[in-house]
Design a protein that fits this description.
By secondary structure, the protein is α/β, with parallel strands linked by helices. The protein has four domains: 4-91, Rubrerythrin, domain 2 (Single Sheet); 102-209 and 338-406, FAD/NAD(P)-binding domain; 223-335, FAD/NAD(P)-binding domain, CATH 3.50.50; 412-500, FAD/NAD-linked reductase, C-terminal dimerisation domain (Enolase-like, domain 1). It contains eleven helices and 34 strands. A five-stranded parallel sheet has the order 11-10-9-15-27. The chain has a five-stranded parallel sheet with strand order 17-24-18-19-20, covered by helices on one side. Helix 5 (251-260) links the parallel strand 18 (243-247) and strand 19. Helix 1 packs parallel to helix 8 (385-399). Residues 1-5, 43-53 and 88-98 have low confidence and may be disordered.
Length: 502
């Protein structure tokens, strides 16, 4: 049986998939404008004939209109007809209005909160139980380093105040977690009070935990990670006038180091690679970042590995592989994360590095969804705040009955580290002489473009990332740069061509 291509559009910000001849004017998940959608062709086996659209859904309020064309305006919210999307009748969504389905969300991080927000937006009658392991109101984990740096107060950390959960009829349980998932009975058991709760839909958003290498001394006082508000409080208390060592030169490690320089005696960052952030930066960009870091008073040691931590009951130093001992009153590990997938694996869900999910973020059980750091979609576990938020929203929409696809987020990195804007995408390191590399360093900015077979295949922007969308679009649309590559054009000519892609 022959295959055909289904026309669809993917939001390049959040991964939402829109079906139709044209992209929507605005993404219903993240609000991105029409220009940030890209064509998303899929090969589909025509087991069933493709039906012509005979109903239309309002992207604002989800009202469904029946007819060959959309209405002039939505009768519910007055949105113009151009904001309707086509819906095939055989796939028409029946929202959970009038249904009091029990939806349990495990996890109080951004994926869980986004799921709760989404469910309540699309279903006014669902019973929502949100279970958070921490005893604090769910908060912006992304802002912990800002709180450490005294840029914000602790009162600015909560995502919502306590009254919001009451107003939206979300039953929030804090300080507890799942101890068992029973797929046959469709119920979960909590750890602390051993209470079992039944569900119609379950969203797993329990995130990840920090990876700490199995070194001698990691359980001593003065050794911690930075993952929770309690971790941040511990660091703040113990960092005053202390020798602080951060092990790991990734984004979180660098941000933590930058936050502590105002009240620690000395902050040192250890990175076992020979330059910072090799997955996101070229050597030249990493060296520029290193200069910025050391200019702020942070000591940077690259190409070094910790062998063990020294001390008795409390840490006193870090022994390096080469035999050198660095004094330390506080050691912070920032060496990656691992998905909290144990319970899912024990329950019989399919798990690889994370819980395997399809484009609807369903697990191997159709009524159980996974989102955020815990989920593995098409072989990809993002470990990023934005991805977790978008997946949570889409999982919530599906749990509420609004069938919505997640097509993946393009693999690019847009970061801000210690006040420096960074953007990297694609293959920014040439494999061999068949690649063309054009780069420029100017003042506090750096631009690198890598071409192969007349196409832009990778880029890095350091300092000024305001035109990263143009770069991204050029790569994803395989823009032909053959004319300027024949003349070995400079950066300004490349930017001229990049602006034409918009």
């Amino acid at each position: 049986m022959n295959e055909y291509k289904s026309i669809a559009w993917r939001c390049t910000v959040c991964g939402y998939i829109h079906r139709g001849e044209k992209p929507p004017n605005e993404c219903p998940v993240c609000g991105a404008p029409k220009k940030l959608f890209e064509s998303f062709n899929e090969k589909i086996k025509p087991d069933l004939p493709a039906a012509q659209p005979n109903s239309w859904r309002c992207l604002v309020c989800t009202h469904v209109h029946t007819g060959d064309t959309p209405p002039d305006k939505c009768p519910v919210c007055d949105t113009p007809g151009k904001s309707f999307e086509p819906v095939n009748k055989q796939d028409e969504i029946k929202l959970s209005k009038g249904k009091k389905e029990k939806i349990i969300i495990a996890g109080g991080g951004i994926a869980g909160i986004a799921a709760a927000e989404s469910i309540r937006e699309y279903s006014g009658d669902a019973e929502i139980l949100l279970i958070s392991k921490e005893k604090h109101l769910p908060y912006y984990r992304l802002n912990l380093t800002r709180w450490l740096a005294d840029e914000i107060g602790e009162d600015a950390l909560p995502i919502h105040q306590e009254g919001w959960y009451e107003e939206n009829r979300i039953n929030l349980v804090m300080g507890d977690e799942l101890s068992k998932i029973s797929m046959d009975q469709k119920e979960v058991t909590l750890l602390n009070d051993d209470v079992a709760y039944s569900f119609d839909k379950l969203i797993l958003a329990t995130g990840s935990h920090p990876f700490v290498p199995p070194l001698t001394g990691v359980n001593m006082e003065g050794v911690t990670t930075l993952r929770t508000l309690d971790d941040a409080r511990y660091i703040r208390t113990n960092a005053k006038n202390a020798e602080v060592i951060v092990i790991g030169g990734g984004v979180l490690g660098l941000e933590a180091a930058g936050a502590l320089i105002n009240y620690a005696k000395q902050v040192t960052v250890l990175e076992n690679f020979d330059y910072l952030m090799p997955r996101q930066l070229s050597r030249k960009a990493a060296l520029m970042l290193g200069e910025t870091i050391t200019g702020k008073g942070i000591k940077l040691r690259v190409n070094v590995s910790a062998k063990e931590l020294t001390g008795d009951e409390r840490v006193s130093g870090v022994l390096l592989d080469g035999g050198e001992i660095l004094p330390a009153d506080l050691v912070i590990f920032s060496t990656g994360i691992r998905a909290n997938s144990y319970l899912a694996r024990a329950a019989g869900l399919q798990v690889n590095q994370g819980i395997l999910v399809n484009d609807y973020l369903q697990t191997s059980h159709p009524d159980i969804y996974a989102a955020g750091d815990l989920a593995e979609h098409r072989g990809m576990s993002y470990g990023l705040w934005g991805a977790a938020q978008f997946q949570g929203s889409i999982a919530g929409m599906n749990a509420a009955g609004l069938k919505t696809e997640f097509g993946g987020i393009p693999r690019s990195n847009s970061l801000k580290v210690l006040g420096v804007n960074l953007f990297s995408i694609g293959k920014f390191e040439p494999d061999d002489g068949s690649y063309i590399l054009i780069e420029q360093e100017k003042d506090d900015s750096y631009e690198r473009f890598v071409f192969h077979d007349t196409h832009l295949v990778g880029a890095i922007l350091y300092g000024d990332t305001s035109r990263s969308a143009d770069v991204k679009r050029a790569i994803e649309t395989t823009r032909d740069f053959s004319k300027i590559l024949q003349t070995r054009a400079d950066i300004s000519v490349i930017w001229e061509m990049l602006s034409e892609t918009g």
